[in-house]
Amino acid sequence: MTPLRTALLQGPAGVPESVEQSLGVLEEAAGRAAARGARVLVTSEMFLTGYAVGERVAELAETRRGPAGERVARIAARHGIAIAYGYPERDGQAVFNAARLVGPDGAGLADYRKTHLFGPYERAAFTPGDTQVVQAGLDGHRVGLLICYDVEFPEAVRAHALAGTEVLLVPTALMRPYEFVSTTLVPTRAYENGIHIAYANRCGPEGEWDFAGLSALAGPDGTVRARAGAGAEFLVADADPAVLRAAREETPYLADRRPELYRTHLG
Amino acid sequence: MTPLRTALLQGPAGVPESVEQSLGVLEEAAGRAAARGARVLVTSEMFLTGYAVGERVAELAETRRGPAGERVARIAARHGIAIAYGYPERDGQAVFNAARLVGPDGAGLADYRKTHLFGPYERAAFTPGDTQVVQAGLDGHRVGLLICYDVEFPEAVRAHALAGTEVLLVPTALMRPYEFVSTTLVPTRAYENGIHIAYANRCGPEGEWDFAGLSALAGPDGTVRARAGAGAEFLVADADPAVLRAAREETPYLADRRPELYRTHLG
């Protein structure tokens, strides 16, 4: 099978709360990604609105197929590339920290709501999701979605791997001083599960936070296929199923688990 | 509470199959560790006999309180230091890849049998253990035991953390080219669970393997408190409960888990 060429857009969307500017950045990135042969473009968490939008998150939130979402779908279709993006999702009275994957024709493929909310801001702003594993097929690859803090829980990524996820797309908003998560924990998650992880972060100061950059495509063999620095950056790298197969032969963690011993302990 | 000063003995025991030589190395290391104020000394996996003993493992195996074990207990008592050591344990017809912790008075505190056997040699030589979490109290700290490949499974370490383990003692026999496990995965395990991990490896060539060294005391805050190189080495560092408490406040992973979402996936 052909590798899934994956583009990661690391950057602030521009001015927080400026959905218009975010869509402009996305349009440009989708064009660059498609020109380099990428089949999917991954943005940061809360890409469309910015992360540090405080109490305005409720009014900025829109439904899955709201006006900004429809424009993302048109960008995807225009450039013939799938896009996984973060945004605040409205569903009735509830607001979720969400990621949506649209296909290269603009059709919705998967919708995920962050299950592990991080810190007081997110807990005040969002309702937590209640479904751990959300997947879709893309060019014959099984891709999954998680958001930021989710990936720090080994259970969440293991659940994906056991359900067949091969490439995990993770819009994120990792702040300093948590660089360890991107440099060390994310490569471990990929290695211990034999999957690729596309971890696309924000960067630079925004509100009370300073985002760490360091976006990465981490491979199932412990290598990092592409790694960003601290500033705005655009990465393209391949998630290769041949690397995945070789890694799972070399370190057959999924086969060597002993779930009957874990059950009583993991609550 | 006082930090648990922990010594890690990295090295081949000397000639494989020479239990006598291993006990000599241990005696010397226990003296050095005690002189530096350590309260526990951790050795590598299969320390007493060597790892690459092939089919002789069955005859080298002895019960928990066999002759070599009794001599370890006397070494511990002589130097007033706890010792966690790896050896092949006989129990009737079965042979386990085991770790035993004896206290500073030489009394047995905990016995663990490796639950995740690695590769064809271990699967042929050993019966897998059937108890994931084995713990003991040591100077007011809750310590646990795992062996090598076990620690690569996030479930095994999570089980310990949820059961209250604060310092995980891990005799290991990590070969090249799996250095990633020590450099990256073990620090992640400590970080994602808010615990200290004392990972004591073999080093250098033995039989068909080349052991990687790189023993470490990994901290709950993502730092590595002490790290060995590739050759024979002796490390001493503190597992400090104050660091553990601060890390768990900073990254409250255990509190932020969502076990109700994992259950259906983790089998």
Number of domains of chain A: 1
Which structural class is indicated by helix and strand composition of chain A?
alpha/beta
Most extensive chain contact? A-B, 38 and 38 residues
Low-pLDDT runs of 5+ residues of chain A are none
Report strand % of chain A: 25-35%
Overall 3D shape of chain A: globular
Strand order of the largest sheet of chain A: 5-4-3-2-1-14
Biggest sheet statistics of chain A? 6 strands, mixed
What is the alpha-carbon Rg of chain A in Å?
Answer: 17 Å
Total DSSP helices of chain A: 9
Oligomer: homodimer
- Give the % helix of chain A: 25-40%
The CATH class designation of chain A is: Alpha Beta
Tally of strands of chain A = 14
CATH topology of chain A: Nitrilase/N-carbamoyl-D-aminoacid amidohydrolase
What is the mean pLDDT of chain A? Answer: 96
CATH superfamily of chain A: Carbon-nitrogen hydrolase
What is the CATH-assigned architecture of chain A? 4-Layer Sandwich
- Amino-to-carboxy terminus distance of chain A: 38 Å
Instruction: Give me the strand/helix succession of chain A.
Output: EHEHHEEEHEEHEHEEEEEEHHH
The gist of it:
The structure is a homodimer of 267-residue chains. Chain A is of the alpha/beta class.
Could you please describe the fold and organization of this structure?
- Two copies of one chain form a homodimer.
- By secondary structure, chain A is α/β, with parallel strands linked by helices.
- Chain A has one domain: Carbon-nitrogen hydrolase (Nitrilase/N-carbamoyl-D-aminoacid amidohydrolase, 4-Layer Sandwich).
- Chain A is built from nine helices and 14 strands.
- In chain A, the strands form three sheets. In chain A, strands 5-4-3-2-1-14 form a six-stranded mixed β-sheet. Chain A has a six-stranded mixed β-sheet with strand order 6-7-8-9-12-13, with helices on one face.
- In chain A, strand 4 (94-102) and strand 5 (108-113) form a beta hairpin.
- The longest helix of chain A is centred in the N-terminal third of the chain and has 17 residues, at 19-35.
- The mean pLDDT of chain A is 96.
- The A-B interface holds A 115-116, 128, 130-133, 149, 152-156, 158-159, 162-163, 178, 180, 184-185, 187-189, 191-192, 222, 251, 253, 256-259, 261-262, 265-267 and B 115-116, 128, 130-133, 149, 152-156, 158-159, 162-163, 178, 180, 184-185, 187-189, 191-192, 222, 251, 253, 256-259, 261-262, 265-267.
